[in-house]
Amino acid sequence: AQDALNNGEVPVGCLMVYDNQVVGKGRNEVNETKNATQHAEMVAIDQVLDWCEMNSKKSTDVFENIVLYVTVEPCIMCAGALRLLSCGSVLNVSGDDIPDTGTKFKCIGGYQAEKAIEFLKTFYKQENPNAPKSKVRKKE
């Protein structure tokens, strides 16, 4: 997330771990690539797919066993992609009422939450360097 912030991106970072090994990691790259789909999770997904190909692994088997670490809750696009890839269940885990599905779901919320919030606050206080000059607003 810090690297994303340092590069003028929304400060989101993501790790994907399979069999205790990081097989994908990403940070937002939307502004750098001028591609609105390059969220941290999507960048990490691409890396996992490359890793699967290089290691002769079936991506479906790998994604079913991925442990996802992300600094903020995935957006609807990323949640949809993760679900389509069978990356576990995508739930709103910010609440206490998680339904019993028969499968244990482990979520550790709030880990470094204040740091993630500070990254977001810092980002949104900045000017958008890609905005047309006529659209630049003065931040107070």
As laid out across the biggest beta sheet, the strand order is 2-1-3
In terms of per-residue confidence, which ranges show pLDDT below 50 for 5 or more consecutive residues? Answer: 90-95
Ends apart, CA distance between termini: 25 Å
> How many distinct folded domains?
1
CATH class wording:
Alpha Beta
CATH superfamily: Cytidine Deaminase, domain 2
Predict the CATH topology: Cytidine Deaminase, domain 2
Computed CA radius of gyration, to the nearest angstrom: 17 Å
Average pLDDT confidence is: 82
Cofactor: Zn(2+)
InterPro entries: APOBEC/CMP_deaminase_Zn-bd, CMP_dCMP_dom, Cytidine_deaminase-like
GO biological process, one term: tRNA wobble adenosine to inosine editing
Domain CMP/dCMP-type deaminase: 1-105
Describe what you observe in this structure.
The protein has six helices and three strands, in the order αββαααβαα. The chain has a single domain (2-126), classed as Cytidine Deaminase, domain 2 (3-Layer(aba) Sandwich). Helices cover 37% and strands 12% of the residues. With 140 residues, the chain is an alpha+beta fold.
Briefly summarize what is shown:
This protein has 140 residues and is of the alpha+beta class. It has one domain (2-126): Cytidine Deaminase, domain 2.
Topology overview:
Blueprint: H1 2-6, E1 13-18, E2 21-27, H2 30-33, H3 40-54, H4 59-64, E3 67-70, H5 76-84, H6 113-125
Antiparallel strand pairs: 1-2, 1-3
GO molecular function: tRNA-specific adenosine-34 deaminase activity; zinc ion binding
Pfam families: dCMP_cyt_deam_1
InterPro entries: APOBEC/CMP_deaminase_Zn-bd (IPR016192), CMP_dCMP_dom (IPR002125), Cytidine_deaminase-like (IPR016193)
